[in-house]
Automatic annotation (TrEMBL), chain A:
GO terms for cellular component: membrane. It comes from Paenibacillus phyllosphaerae. Its main location: membrane. The keyword Lipoprotein applies. It is a lipid-anchor. This is Spore germination protein KC. The lineage of its organism: Bacteria, Bacillati, Bacillota, Bacilli, Bacillales. It is found in: Membrane. Belongs to the GerABKC lipoprotein family. NCBIfam families: spore_ger_x_C.
From TrEMBL, chain B:
Residues 503-513 have a biased composition (Basic and acidic residues). It comes from the Bacteria. This is Spore germination protein KA. Keywords: Membrane, Transmembrane, Transmembrane helix. It comes from Paenibacillus phyllosphaerae. One of its GO terms (cellular component) is membrane. The keyword Membrane applies. Belongs to the GerABKA family. Residues 128-147, 483-513 are annotated as: Disordered. One of its GO terms (biological process) is spore germination.
Length: 407, 513
């Protein structure tokens, strides 16, 4: 018994010796990255890191002196991504830590070359998260990383908040996480999308003393939607087309749509009302009719009136019906724009391939050989159903009160 | 080895004096009672153990005022002995002694011994007294609602406190004398038909087998009779509150009272028993259940929080929200030691402060809190020795330790904490989980007088779960805990006692019609 205990104790003690150089890292040995960017110039990958300076952040929040940038950016260059990351050891006192990396910005150049190796790095390494938000930019991505943001001192975190807020409450651009992007480009459609990030305005705001002003000359902003065929960049979709893609891929949560309420001849025919979509659901049903692919898409959405100058009686069901009609037309137009863009580029970012594969597994075997062509020649049978559920707390438009016959 | 009491009174008294080393507190008195002129009587007692009022008023005074024997004199020894016993000594408990050793024991127990010249037997009258503390509010286990009385150092008082709460003829007190030198009275108390007879026998057997010089506190007994020594967990509960002890007795547990200490042992106990406070039963069941869950939570916090902090901040930084990570990292900037060392410094500092707080004279007690708060609270952080987060972790750990009602279980979590910190600092969360697994296996193997330590959970006993994590309302607890109490009588109260308003028509009848 005693001998056994001694043995047990000895083995535990020996274990203690082993762990000295294990993966234990103190917090003050970590270089926490908030954003990473990848660029490709020639044969070389250029990886840039936005490191958080914790002490600077804490003095910022403490209302302290300031003057120190909360982030620091540096770049390394090598033939492979991981070699570039390893090279940062030549210049960074801290061990780079990617688990809290919020955004991954790829340059268009790198995207044209192909992102397979980047995705492989993310899937292979245990401490990098596949839930990182992916963004694409024209030109050098270092510019994005160096740009300071007001309100949110860590711009990497800020950009992630922008994209996740936007996709939740505006739905124009999707929030693309790395694992989702990777799943899409290896899925049946072999196509993916990625929102664009850009610095609008110039010059760059990359010094803390510029932050003292109420308006910065440039700021980070989301732009268009990049379309990928396989792991390579293919082209750009405009925001309107991107909105349509959101509808077709059932990623609309909340959105704002302007429309013309119609009816009243006193209006100039422009947009004079707006609704907010409170929910939207898209159902995609593929059909093969005489060997021809037909996609039946049904969009069912509902919303609330948020703005109008229509003088019509909003309590009249007919008026509401008419309004719903013009909103449906508006949504229809948005979706058709996306559909045309997809057909133009012969790229199935809508995930129709998966739907076809599921419903017609046999025919799919034939179709997948030439899916891009099949997709481009498919028909879209679109029905949009919109229900105006609420008109807000005001029964009449303010405009109608101005009319002489109004009360 | 027994020796008869010497016939001659003088010899006997001298023998007693020499046996007790001519101790100044031994009082021997020889006199001739009234009503007789030929018989000498000796009165022996130890000052401080007896009540002087009783000795003077009930023994010496009555002897001196003894009724005239009239024509019966002169009496022989036996006759006079019986006369004293039956007519003179007006004390409740009386014993006839025939050996010198018995005489000594009786004296040391606080009896007054009466010797008659020429007799070989002596009379012992119980005259208990001496200095004792009155019943006060217990200092270590306080409640807001509930009785405020606590056990005292006096065994008789303690027995009476229990007896007063259970007015049942089935309440049993079995006395033992343990300790070759101290001859400490130990009393086992239980209710027949409610306590499990097997466990009562087992406890008595274990008590009888104790062979030691001294029993000064119930802790001595605990170490001799517990099922396993090498465990951080206590397998006997000690309590200062009569209501807790009585509650235990009524559930079939067995109390062990030791003379000279207000801490009464309760056995057999299971793990959950250490998280029950007697107040749980006096408060409403919802808040009682909530508090009980808080206590379990605090136990784990007090055991694990520093180790979790170490493990997560040195191995699993990805588990923290980014903002928290940044703020922790900012605090760690400039701290010289690894988190493990930092935590050890802080924990040990706290333990030192805590021990100092207990040992320190009351008068300078407030100084320690000031020094402690300043030293570990502020100065250490400002000097950059430790991070502010670590101070928060250590203080919250310390506070949650005090939530556990039983001090012995709180101590267990204090000790385990250090082991866990080493595990967390070397193996991360994996180490902590392994440690917890080891603890769980260990606990599952523990027994308290044959009862599995984790009883209602492992082995699962659904009926016993009514008073573990939550306390169900009183009317729902119809049975006593299984295994602990007597298997033959498990019914505690009648079922279906849930209160309800009277029938609707009856209640509203007057108003509606």
């Amino acid at each position: 018994m005693r001998k056994q205990g001694a043995r047990l104790l000895a083995s535990v003690m020996l274990c203690m010796l082993l762990t000295g150089c294990w993966d234990r890292t103190e917090l003050n040995e970590l270089g926490i990255t908030a954003a990473t960017s990848v660029d490709k110039i020639g044969d070389n990958w250029i990886v840039s890191y936005q490191l958080i300076i914790p002490s600077a952040i804490s003095t910022l929040s403490g209302g302290g002196a300031g003057g120190i940038s909360p982030i620091t950016v540096h770049s390394t260059k090598a033939r492979t991504i991981r070699e570039a990351v390893a090279k940062s050891k030549l210049e960074s006192p801290r061990q780079l830590y990617f688990a809290h990396n919020r955004i991954l910005v790829v340059s268009e150049r790198a995207a044209r070359y192909g992102l397979s190796s980047l995705i492989d790095v993310y899937f292979r390494l245990p401490n990098s998260r596949e839930t990182v938000s992916m963004l694409i930019t024209e030109g050098s991505p270092v510019r994005i990383l160096r740009q300071l943001m007001s309100i949110q001192p860590i711009s990497g975190q800020g950009v992630q908040q922008i994209i996740s807020n936007e996709s939740r409450s505006y739905s124009l651009l999707p929030h693309v996480k790395l694992y989702k992007f990777a799943m899409n480009i290896v899925g049946d459609a072999r196509a993916g999308v990625m929102p664009e990030i850009l610095v609008s305005g110039s010059p760059n705001v990359d010094a803390v003393n510029q932050m003292g002003e109420t308006n910065q000359p440039s700021r980070l902003k989301l732009g268009r939607l990049a379309v990928f065929k396989s792991d390579r960049f293919y082209g750009w979709f405009s925001q309107r087309e991107s909105f349509g893609v959101s509808f077709l891929t059932d990623e609309v949560n909340q959105a704002s749509i302007s429309f013309n309420c119609g009816g009243g001849s006193d209006q100039q025919g422009g947009m004079n009302s707006a609704v907010t979509l409170t929910r939207s659901q898209t159902k995609v049903k593929p059909h093969i009719v005489d060997g021809h692919l037909q996609m039946e898409v049904h969009v069912k959405s509902a919303g609330m009136l948020e703005e109008t100058v229509c003088t019509d009686n909003l309590q009249d069901p007919k008026v509401i019906k008419r309004m719903e009609g013009s909103i449906q037309k508006e949504i229809n137009g948005i979706i058709m724009a996306a559909w045309e863009a997809c057909k133009r580029d012969k790229v199935d970012v809508l995930g129709f391939a998966g739907a076809v594969h599921r419903k017609y597994p046999k025919q799919w075997k034939r179709m997948k050989q030439n899916w891009d062509q099949e997709f481009a020649s498919a028909d879209l049978k679109l029905t949009v159903d919109f229900k105006l559920e609420r008109i807000g707390v005001s029964n009449k438009s303010f405009k109608s009160l101005e009319e002489p016959e109004g009360e | 080895m027994t020796t008869a009491i010497p016939k001659q009174l003088k010899v006997a008294l001298n023998w007693i004096n020499s046996e007790l080393g001519n101790s100044p507190d031994t009082v021997t008195r020889m006199f001739t009672p009234s009503g007789t002129d030929s018989v000498s009587v000796g009165v022996v007692y130890i000052e401080g153990l007896v009540s002087m009022d009783t000795v003077n008023g009930r023994i010496i005074h009555t002897l001196m005022d003894a009724p005239d024997l009239g024509d019966q004199k002169p009496l022989n020894c036996d006759g006079y002995f019986r006369f004293l016993k039956e007519k003179v000594v007006s004390v409740g408990r009386i014993a006839e002694l025939s050996t010198s050793e018995e005489m000594l024991t009786a004296l040391l127990d606080g009896y007054t011994v009466l010797l008659i010249d020429g007799c070989t037997s002596a009379l012992a009258a119980q005259t208990p007294g001496g200095a004792k503390r009155s019943v006060e509010e217990p200092s270590s286990q306080t409640v807001i609602r509930g009785p405020k009385e606590g056990f005292t150092e006096d065994l008789g008082t303690n027995i009476s406190l229990i007896r007063r709460k259970i007015k049942s003829s089935k309440l049993r007190f079995v006395q033992f004398k343990i300790g070759q030198v101290t001859q400490t009275d130990v009393v086992v108390s239980y209710i027949e038909d409610i306590a499990n007879a097997k466990i009562v026998d087992e406890i008595q057997k274990r008590l009888e087998s104790i062979d030691t010089d001294s029993i000064l506190e119930s802790g001595y007994i605990e170490e001799f009779i517990q099922d396993r020594t090498f465990t951080p967990f206590p397998t006997l509960l000690n309590m200062e509150r009569p209501d807790s002890i009585v509650g235990g007795i009524l559930e079939g547990q067995i109390a062990i009272l030791v003379d000279g200490t207000p801490f009464v042992l309760l056995a057999p106990v299971t793990f959950n028993r250490f998280f029950q406070s007697s107040e749980d039963y006096y408060q409403r069941f919802d808040i009682a259940s909530f508090l009980r869950i808080i206590r379990y939570g605090s136990f784990f916090v007090s055991m694990l929080l520093p180790s979790l902090y170490i493990a997560i901040s040195t191995f699993h930084q990805e588990m923290l929200p980014t903002t928290l990570l940044i703020s922790l990292a900012a605090q760690r900037e400039g701290t010289p030691f690894p988190a493990l060392v930092e935590a050890f410094i802080m924990e040990l500092t706290f333990e030192v402060l805590r021990e100092a707080g207990v040992r320190m004279p009351r008068a300078i007690g407030s100084a320690i809190s000031i020094v402690g708060a300043l030293v570990i609270g502020q100065a250490a952080v400002q000097a950059g020795l430790v991070s502010a987060a670590m101070v928060i972790v250590v203080s919250f750990t310390a506070i949650s330790n005090f939530v556990i009602p039983s001090l012995s279980m709180a101590t267990a979590s204090r000790l385990i904490r250090f082991g866990m910190m080493i595990l967390g600092g070397t193996f991360g969360l994996f180490g902590i989980m392994s440690g917890l697994m080891f603890l769980l296996i260990h606990m599952a193997g523990l027994r308290s007088f044959g009862i599995p330590f984790l009883l209602p959970i492992s082995p699962v006993s659904v009926k016993n779960l009514k008073d573990v994590f939550i306390r169900v309302p009183k009317w729902a607890m119809t049975t006593r805990p299984r295994l602990i109490s007597d298997p033959q009588s498990s019914r505690r109260q009648a079922p279906g006692q849930k209160p309800a308003p009277p029938d609707a028509d009856h209640a509203t009848g007057g108003e509606s019609e």
